[in-house]
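Q: I'm a student working through a structural biology exercise. My instructor gave each of us a protein and asked us to get a predicted structure, then write a short paragraph describing it. Mine is Thioredoxin. I'm not confident about reading structure output yet, so if you can add a plain explanation after the tokens, that would really help. Here is the sequence I was given:
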Amino acid sequence: MQKLIVALVALACFATPVLLTVASYTSQDFSPNEDVSPRNLHGKVLFFSANWCPACRHADPVYQELRNAGYPISKVDVDSNPTLAEKYGIRSIPQFIYVVDGHEKSRISGGASANRIKRLFQGGW
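A: Happy to help. First, here is the predicted structure for Thioredoxin. I'll explain a few features afterward.
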């Protein structure tokens, strides 16, 4: 009887994290292939960059693509806006930060694809 109890407890200890992980990935409403409509989005993405930054220049076409598609995204030059960069703790650029009502919800450091940035609006990364 004790061996059965130990086996059940061991199984529960192993299975619980696995089941919770699987549930967290399958319960999301957002599919990576699903396109997010810019009309009903809350918040905006702040794209922190600088003119002298090669990685920022590389990320700029993604910013332009999202902006031209109507997504709420703003470019913030860290040299021109050091107070805003300090508020969000910018230590490296480029950075994309999803902000709702002035509060950071999530961020991506470095370059990212347009689809990855669209996932920020759904609370993903």
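A: Here are two points you could use in your paragraph. Residues 2-26 form the longest helix (25 residues). The first strand starts at residue 44 and ends at 49. It's a good idea to check both against the output above yourself.
Q: Great, thank you!
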